[in-house]
Design brief:
heterodimer; A: alpha/beta; Rossmann fold; 5-stranded parallel β-sheet; 5 helices; 16% strand; B: mainly alpha
Chain lengths: 128, 166
Amino acid sequence: MAVDMKMPILIVDDYKTMLRIVRNLLQKLGFSEIDEATDGTDALAKLKCRQYGLVISDWNMQPMTGYELLQKVRADESLKSLPFVMVTAESKVENVVAARQAGVNNYIIKPFSAEVLKAKLKTVLGDF
Amino acid sequence: MAEAGKLDLVERLTNECIDLCRTLLRGRKHIDPLLDPAFRTQKLKRALDEQKTAIAEMEMAVDKIMSAVERLAEIDFSSAPSAADRVAACSEEIIEACCFQDITGQRLTHVMTTLGEVRQGLDALADGRDEAAPEPAVSGLLNGPALPGNAMEQDAVDKLLAGGSK
């Protein structure tokens, strides 16, 4: 099944530059419905209000981290199957293992290239 | 009378010595965490390494951005389709390079946290406060960006996610 390029995507990061970077790259890939949140709490509130097709989240944010957001998403009946990609500078084995155990769909290490983002999104969403 | 005066002087000197000892002991409480080898060899050293790495990353990002801008300036716009492709490629490189702000921001936050701990100890010492400095919060899985040589590559992450080992 083809990927709906108009599906809403939520990007979560506490750095405005990073939000702009991810938004720009997603737009270049052809996605048009992109919302932003600046931490897990903000993201969770937005996830309750709109049906998203994908979450792309940073890890290191306050007050709610991306990891906590992932746990809450997976624990929520209405959100648990939502594709969730972590894009983070946290590159320790224990972080990746914890994210995998929490149910992350993919994990991208910062800094990343547009090519890596595209490849990982294809792995999660299918070809587009 | 002279004997009483001498006793007063001895008592005053003794009290001053006691006060001095108390002040030293209070100061020691604030300085101890900073003198701890773990603080100096790990935290302080890491802060210095983070600062150095952040400077190198900024330089690298600026170099990438400048290179892309120079290539933009050299584009021959008389060939519109290929020019458009080259502009798109350069702008993508610039966008990617801007990632540095997030990474260096996290590194400098680490430096600021460490400097904050030093400042807290020195402030308490200067103010003659009696209470011990609060323990820094435990960060758990929040390590921030790895230093060069310690970072896990994307390929290793992919393998780990797929269920393999690093």
